[in-house]
Amino acid sequence: MAFLELNGVGKGYGSGSKRVEVLRDIDLHVEEGEFVAVLGFSGTGKTTLISLIAGLIEPDAGEILLRGKKVDGPGPGRGVVFQNYSLLPWLTARQNIGLAVDHLFSDWDADKRAAHIDQHLKMVNLAAAGSKLPKELSGGMRQRVSVARTLAMNPDILLLDEPLGALDALTRGSLQGEIARIWAQDKKTVVLITNDPDEAIFLADRIFPLTPAVDGEGATLGPEFGVENLPRPRDKKRLNENADYKHLRNRITKYFMDVRHEQRKNIRHEEVLLPDLRPVVWETA
Amino acid sequence: MKDKLISTLSFAGFGWCVPVIRLTTGEDPNEQIRQIFLTIGVPVLTFGLFLLLWNGAASGVRTNLGTVPGPAQVVEQIRSLAQEHREERQKRTEFYARQAEKNKAQLAANPTEAVKVRKFTGRPTYLDQIFTSLRTVFTGFLIASLIAVPLGILCGMSKTLMTALNPLIQIFKPVSPVAWLPIVTMIVSAVYVVPREWMPKSYVISSITVALCCMWPSLINTAIGVKSIDKDYINVGRVLRLGFFSRVFRIVLPVSMPYIFAGLRISLGVGWVVLIASEMLSQNPGLGKFVWDEFQNGSSQSLARIMVAAFTIGLVGFVLDRIMIMLHQLVSYGQETH
């Protein structure tokens, strides 16, 4: 039995003729301490998948098991890092983390809670920015606060929903390094949702492509790509020259290209009938 | 220091005096003078033009109470009202001084005598009327807010409740204060039989009428604000498994503050407009009653006095709105407000 199990999970929205299937037949087994990435185009149901695992929404079909127990509603055991940070704008970085810590660890004394918050601010290199409001922080710093808040909840599993999607390429790169470093510290189980193959390869142990829906049937997971043969800690610069890395990257790219191609073939091009009209030439002479 | 002053002034709605400050510190004089003309000069010119037009047009119309007063007569009435206020205050001071002296003399003659302290019963001055009106409008506004904001939050959180209340809200929202007033009067007279001295019946009636008319914008805005909260904020609360009250007070209420205050601002504006009408009819001492009394009084000064009241109503309304905008900005955490 795996740590996190998704068996035949499906989810759709709406009813009747407006019914839209988003996900179907999702089977995903994640072992404890594993870093798994789900890679997909935007709009293919990635956020739906993470919301299902987080328990924010319920699956229509199949089951989601964490440590063999059925996921029933959201809880602090599954820490979600949302794409747009979702920091409360009237609270400082410290207070945002404090909101979670004070609520979840109300049996700790105040000093212990403060130390816990400090420790997590330090973990994301924001020890000096604790008293700043979110609007005074850059996008990258906000996401680091968000990561710190989630980690401070001591979750069993960390769910990252395109955490770096809204950041510029340079900030993205440095935060990827930071996530790798933090993960290496306590090897938490992580499910990362991303649309960036490089990010997936750099961070994950295994990558699952999310194959887009065909004929409105809902997206599902494709065959896994193992990244075990890339040794950790991974170095971005050296990774670019690694033959395995290049090979894996090509395979993933090719997979998505093929999927796209397959989809295009399925779209029938109907011939458009044009009205039988001809320009009229007036004889003015 | 200068920047701080400037940002504080802009925040308080005195953005127009920013160029003056910049000019006094010698910052780009030409640009500042242009800005002063645009922000101060132009409005002053329009106002002057308005006064001229008013002056010209007013003398042409004859009414039962003489010609329509121009700006000069209105200013004269402002002076006369101020004079009356001073005289009335003088009388009050004298009254209390006399009373204190009399009581002292009585106590000196007979230390055991129970001396009486009477309240001065002069008529309310114009300034008193303004404050009565303010007190009434704030009472009504407070009642409205205490009902509208919690109800709005509940409506925003529960679609069912919103659907349930929607017909009532839509029907009662457009009802004019003039229609509410007789109903409120009858009910208050039936329920509030023995009025306390500090809370006369007319005051209760006006306040409740104001509340009935001005609660709707707050209610609707609060509901919309709560409903449109970013889902992620709600999800943060769900992941933390916050209880109902901590969800409301730690997430829902702070996030929707800007919406709530935008609604309260509209409510207070509506309340102030409604108040004058309801004071007129309920005979609550205040600006509305002042206007009505002057209208009934029909002396040659009445029209000018009513115009003073109109300007006062406008100015007070403007100041109230400014205060609400400031509060709105305070709770908007640096987000765009309007």
Quickly describe the structure.
Chain A folds into two domains: 4-77 and 157-266, P-loop containing nucleotide triphosphate hydrolases (Rossmann fold); 88-154, no CATH class. Helix content of chain A is 36%, strand content 21%. Chain A has helices at 46-54, 93-104, 110-123, 139-152, 169-186, 197-203, 236-239, 243-266, and strands at 4-13, 20-30, 35-39, 61-66, 69-70, 78-81, 157-161, 189-194, 206-211, 220-221, 225-226.
Description:
The complex is a heterodimer of chains A (285) and B (338). Chain A is of the alpha/beta class and 285 residues long. Chain A has two domains: 4-77 and 157-266, P-loop containing nucleotide triphosphate hydrolases (Rossmann fold, 3-Layer(aba) Sandwich), CATH 3.40.50; 88-154, no CATH class. In chain A, 36% of the residues lie in helices and 21% in strands. Chain A contains eight helices and eleven strands. In chain A, the strands form two sheets. In chain A, strands 3, 6, 7, 8, 9, 10 and 11 form a seven-stranded mixed β-sheet that branches. Chain A has a four-stranded antiparallel β-sheet with strand order 2-1-4-5, with helices on one face. In chain A, strand 1 and strand 2 form a beta hairpin. In chain A, helix 2 runs parallel beside helix 4 (139-152). The radius of gyration of chain A is 23 Å and the shape is globular. The N and C termini of chain A lie far apart (91 Å). In chain A, 37% of the residues are buried. The mean pLDDT of chain A is 87. Chain B has a two-stranded antiparallel ribbon with strand order 1-2. In chain B, a hairpin with a 2-residue loop joins strand 1 (62-63) and strand 2. In chain B, helix 5 (126-157) runs parallel beside helix 8 and helix 11 runs antiparallel to helix 12. Chain B folds into two domains: 2-58, no CATH class; 126-330, MetI-like (MetI-like fold), CATH 1.10.3720. Chain B has helices at 2-11, 18-24, 29-58, 71-109, 126-157, 159-172, 177-191, 201-227, 231-239, 244-282, 287-297, 302-330; strands spanning 62-63, 66-67. The longest helix of chain B is centred in the first third of the chain and has 39 residues, at 71-109. With 338 residues, chain B is mostly helical. Chain B is globular, with a radius of gyration of 26 Å. Chains A and B meet through strand 6 and helix 2 of A and helix 9 and helix 10 of B.
